[in-house]
Amino acid sequence: MSHAFVEVQQAAKRFPGSKGSADLTVFENVSFQLQKGEFVCIIGHSGCGKSTIMNALAGLDSLSDGAMIMDGREIDGPSLERGVVFQNYSLLPWLTALENVRFGVRARWPEWKESQVTEHSLHYLEMVGLKEVITRKPAQLSGGMRQRVSIARAFATKPELLLLDEPFGALDALTRGVIQDELLKIWSQDRQTVFMITHDVDEAILLADRIFLMTNGPEARIAEAVEIDLPRPRSRGEIVKHPHFYTLRNYLVDFLVNRASDLRTLSQDSRGLHYPRPVNPVAEASAPATYHKADAPASASPKLVNLSAKEKHHG
Ligand SMILES: Nc1ncnc2c1ncn2[C@@H]1O[C@H](COP(=O)(O)OP(=O)(O)OP(=O)(O)O)[C@@H](O)[C@H]1O
User: What Gene Ontology molecular-function terms does this entry list (predicted)?
Assistant: First the structure.
């Protein structure tokens, strides 16, 4: 029996082909687990099926095969236990920043007094640096501010699982960096389980405990789960100085550039589920090359150098 908080088992998604063409198998044989409190990022080329996996986890779409289980119950529709932040903010345009957050908080805890709802919402808006603009409606906020409201709303409702679908994709690099820091600050306090899509390798290294690497579609798979063992708390300025940073970064970039198109390696557990291969690029880079006797040609025998004789000869 698995004790993972989220367990995805042999998930597949197919869309019917149009006008008699074959069905599109977006992904198949996708199995993975998320531990409680873990921050996992998923990266892969456009169209490989990341959002489709996330929509199924959110309960907004169904799988063609397989199952997604959270806390022992199969996911079969949306729930307040799972919060989603999309790239396009999805705020209610007729409500102010504060009212947008209050809306979520009130739905989550209908028994709370109005003052408690307000106080709780303000706390999260303050954490994302928006205390000064709480009375503005989304149209009066910048893109970065809108995304902060979405993040404040998502974290304020304290879902068991937070699903972030490229939440910073539309933001400029500076704003993105500031909100990444805010996200880390809130997550380090609340330690919710987070599953996040990003195209940004540096962002994934900054945020994640593990990064899932997805092969290209169709019939995409999550091939590897890369462990990010950089110490926390992390900051953008400091992690680049860590001796492991570029080993991790190079490994991820190499996957995206060279290996995502054809990698099919998967490891299987005793139930026959194919999990992504767990990878620690730092350990792999520093491990001595393994010598397989069977790989050696019959004539290859190790060359022994007699150092003392050589020293004598030259001496
Ligand atoms: N409702 C649908 N009907 C048919 N095909 C769909 C549907 N939704 C998604 N697809 C297809 O499924 C594939 C995966 O789409 P998805 O949005 O999950 O990819 P993604 O990895 O999130 O891409 P991106 O990084 O560009 O957001 C794409 O080929 C897409 O065209």
Answer: ATP binding
Q: What is the mean pLDDT of residues 169-187?
A: 86
Q: Does an H or E element contain 259, and which?
A: none
- Ligand 1, CB within 6 Å, residue ranges: 15, 24, 26, 44, 46-52, 217
Could you give the CA distance from residue 101 to residue 127 in angstroms, rounded to a whole number?
A: 13
pLDDT in tens, 210-236: 999 999 989 999 999 999 999 999 998
Q: Is the pLDDT reported for residue 304 higher than 90?
A: no
Considering only residues 168 and 251, tell me which one the structure prediction assigns the higher pLDDT: 251
Mean pLDDT of the chain: 87
Alpha carbon distance 225, 29 (integer Å): 15
For the segment 266-272, the average pLDDT, to the nearest whole number, is: 79
CB 168 within 8 A of CB 89: no
- If 0-12 CB within 10 Å is exposed, 13-18 middle and 19+ buried, where does residue 16 land? exposed
How far does the centroid of ligand 1 lie from the alpha carbon of residue 46, in Å?
8
Q: Pick the atom of ligand 1 nearest to 44's CA.
A: 21
- Work out which ligand 1 atom sits closest to the CA atom of 24: 5
| Measured distance CA(153)–CA(90) in Å, rounded | 11
For the CA of 52, the nearest atom of ligand 1: 18
Residue 121 pLDDT > 80: yes
Residue from 169, 135, 159 nearest 149 by CA: 135
Ligand 1 mutation target, pool 42, 51, 54, most atoms within 8 A of CB: 51
Map residue 224 onto helix, strand or coil.
strand
Parallel, antiparallel or unpaired: strands 193-197 and 39-43: parallel
From the CA of 13, give the closest atom in ligand 1.
Answer: 12
SS3 label, residue 282: helix
